[in-house]
């Protein structure tokens, strides 16, 4: 388990691996081993790599002649008649 080095974390990591290897669904495995499903899913989430957020990724738009709207958190809305360049949008929202 990442960032948590406790015996409980190690036990739950073993349960997660055993559940996957058993072929049982999570509900059945948890009932059989007297584990709360919420605890199982909590430790499953803790054991997974964190998802990176806040990064731009490049996408290609098949159609570039459609209006594009960007709505900011303060409800200001910017409209482009066509798809603007990604670098321009990145600078705009930074």
Structure description:
The protein is mainly alpha-helical and 94 residues long. It contains four helices and two strands, in the order αααββα. Strands 1-2 form a two-stranded antiparallel sheet. α1 (7-22) crosses α3.
Present the secondary structure layout.
Layout: H1 7-22, H2 26-32, H3 37-47, E1 68-71, E2 77-80, H4 86-93
Antiparallel strand pairs: 1-2
Helix pairs in contact: 1-3
Properties at a glance:
mainly alpha, 4 helices, 9% strand, elongated
Structural class: mainly alpha
Q: Order the strands across the largest sheet as they lie in space.
A: 1-2
Could you say which overall geometry the principal axes of the C-alpha atoms support?
Answer: elongated
Strand content: 5-15%
Strand-and-helix sequence, N→C?
HHHEEH
Mean pLDDT: 81
| Fraction of residues in H or I helices | 40-55%
Q: Can you count the beta strands?
A: 2
- In this structure, how is the largest beta sheet organized? 2 strands, antiparallel
Low-confidence stretches: none
Alpha plus pi helix count: 4
Gap from first CA to last CA: 34 Å
Short description:
The protein is mainly alpha-helical and 94 residues long.
